[in-house]
Amino acid sequence: MSTQAGGGAAQVLTSLLLAALLGACTMPAQTPAAAADAADDAATQISSPLGSYLAGRHAQQQHDYGAAAKYFGQALAQDPSDYELMNKTFLFELSEGRIDTAKELAVRIHRIDATSPLPNLVLVLERLKSGDFAGADAEAQNLPHDGIHRFVTPLVQAWTKVGVDSMPRLSRR
Questions:
Q1: pTM of the entire structure?
Q2: What is the 3-state secondary structure (H, E, C) of 151-162?
């Protein structure tokens, strides 16, 4: 009888262990959102401009441009006058589609270097979006004509001209 009782207990223990293992195997892994939150928490723990800058460079090398924008933005917040950092943050924010943040940085960059092509292009496009065709046209005249801008600048200038020329017709309606 004692062997049957011991065998029954072993069988129950084996069944419970198997059920626990199967239960553990079916538990969901960390969700991507939870992983992103964990990464966000880690990002907020960087307290030095150098640490944020290095984290941004690492994210850039890993082609994680969203994280690069975030880390460079943190470094820029701690050193707001660093022009190179401002440009890096601007480019990564723009590449991530964060136009409002990129526009704010474009304004700051424009105050320092009025000839900086990409920030100026963003400012021209923002003026077009807001309906300020004359202002966009004036700023578009300062866009460069070299490199890729040989194609982009005439196109943007044409858009501004269309807007300026259509203003009298729109006001008559």
A1: 0.67
A2: HHHHHHHHHHHH
b/e string for 104-123 if b means 16 or more Cβ within 10 A?
A: ebbebbbeeeeebbbbbbbb
| Same domain flag for 109 and 137 | no
- Name which of 112, 64, 63 is nearest 86 in CA terms: 112
pLDDT, tens only, 108-163: 999 999 889 999 999 999 999 998 989 989 888 888 888 888 898 899 889 888 88
Residue with tokens 């400012």: 123
Total residues belonging to the chain: 173
Domain that holds residue 121: 115-173
Beta carbons of 136 and 127 less than 8 angstroms apart: yes
| Amino acid identity at 90 | F
Q: Are residues 155 and 168 in the same domain?
A: yes
